[in-house]
Amino acid sequence: MYWACRWSVCSACRSATRPCYPFAGMMNVPRPWCWNRANDEKVKIPMKKWILKTGFLLLLLMAGQALAAVLTDVRGVSLRMDRPPQRIISLAPHLTELLFSLGAGRRVVGVIEHSDFPEAAKSIPRVGDASRIDMERILSLRADLVVAWQSGNSAADIRKLERLGMPVYVTEPQRLSDVAALLKGLGRLTGRQAKARELAEDYLGRLSDLEQKYRDARPVSVFYQIWQQPLMTISGRHIISDAIRVCGGRNVFADLDAVAPTVDLEAVVAARPEVIIANSAAENDAVALQAFWSKWPTLTAVSQGHIHTIPSSAMARPSLRIMEGVETLCGILDRVREDSRPAQ
C-alpha cells in the first residue's frame, strides 16, 4: 500500500485541502467532504469557548469603563472615580441636600455648619463652617470624596485638601439651570445617574413653565438684600439674579463685578427699586427689614409697601428647593405689577 497526496479544492465548502489516499486511483473520486469540513465540528467547541471567554472579558472591560466616572469641575480640574464613593464630605448645605435627594445621604460622613436639611443631615459630624474647615477632622473621617462650593469655600482650603491627597470636586451654580447639571454630575460620581436624570427632568420642567409664564411680563426693578450690616446685594453672576430674570424682574445691581457686592444706601435710593426683597432666617427678620427701610419713605418700594422676605433656605441654597423660592419670588413681583396698574 502506498499513499498519494495532492492539493485540491473541496466540492462542498470550496476550501483548499490536501487529502491523502491509500491508492492513487482514488484521487479522482469526487469528494463531497474535505478533511477541513469533516474536522469542523471538532474545532467548533473550542472556538465557541474562545469567543465566549473573549466576549466576557470585553464586557468586563466595558463595565469597568462605565463604572469609572470622569468629570471636570468648575475649575477645569478633571476628577476620576473608579468606583462610587462610599464616604463623602460635603462643604456646603445645598450640596448636602442634593446628595440626600439622590439617595446618597447615608454615604455623607461630614458636613459644614447650617447643613440642616433634611432632618437626617443634622446628626452628621461637622467639619467646619464658611470661614474655616477642620483639616484634622476631615482626615479622621477617611473620606474618598469631598464636594465643595467655589464661592462658599476657601480656595486655600481646597488646595490644602488636594495636597493631602483628597479628591475634591468643586462646583459653582450661577444659573438656575446649573442646579440640574450639578445634580447630574453628583449622580455620575455617586452612581445614581438614573435618579439624577429623573430629578433633573422634573426640575427643568418647572423652570421652563415659569420662563414661559413670565416671558412677556412687565419688568419690575428689584433690590435684593442678602445682608444688612454692611448692606450687601447680588450681581448678575448670582443665581438669585437669574431667578429675578425668570420672574420677569430686573436686578438693579446686575452690572456690578462682585458676586455679592457691598453697596451704600445712596446707591439703592438712586436705583429706585419698585420692590425690596431680603433673605430671612428668623421670624422677626421681616419686622426688622420693614423698620430699617421705613427711614426712606421716598423710595417707591417703601411708599408702596413692597418690602418682602423669602426664607434663606429656599432662596439662598441652589438645591431642588430653590424652585419653591423662585415661585415665591414670582408671586411677589406679580403683586407689584398688580398694584402698579392704573385704577379702572
Topology:
Layout: E1 4-5, E2 8-9, E3 16-17, E4 20-21, H1 35-38, H2 40-67, E5 69-72, E6 78-81, E7 88-90, H3 93-101, E8 108-111, H4 135-140, E9 145-149, H5 155-163, E10 168-171, H6 176-190, H7 193-213, E11 220-225, H8 239-246, E12 249-251, H9 265-271, E13 275-280, H10 285-293, H11 300-303, E14 307-311, H12 312-315, H13 322-340
Parallel strand pairs: 7-8, 7-9, 9-10, 11-12, 11-13, 13-14
Antiparallel strand pairs: 1-4, 2-3, 5-6
Helix pairs in contact: 6-7
Structure, briefly:
The chain is about 40% helix and about 15% strand. With about 350 residues, the chain is an alpha/beta fold.
What is the name of the CATH superfamily of the largest domain? Answer: Nitrogenase molybdenum iron protein domain
Structural class: alpha/beta
Shape category: globular
Q: How many domains comprise the coordinates?
A: 3
State the name of the first-level CATH class of the largest domain: Alpha Beta
Q: Would you identify the regions where 5 or more consecutive residues have pLDDT less than 50? A: 1-7, 11-15, 20-45, 60-66
Radius of gyration: 34 Å
CATH names the topology of the largest domain as Rossmann fold
Biggest beta sheet attributes = 4 strands, parallel
Distance between the ends:
123 Å
- Count of DSSP-assigned helices: 13
Would you list the SSEs in sequence order as H and E? EEEEHHEEEHEHEHEHHEHEHEHHEHH
| Rounded mean pLDDT score | 85
CATH architecture of the largest domain: 3-Layer(aba) Sandwich
Helix content: 40-55%
Number of strands: 14
Q: Order of strands across the biggest sheet?
A: 8-7-9-10
Fraction of residues in β-strands: 15-25%
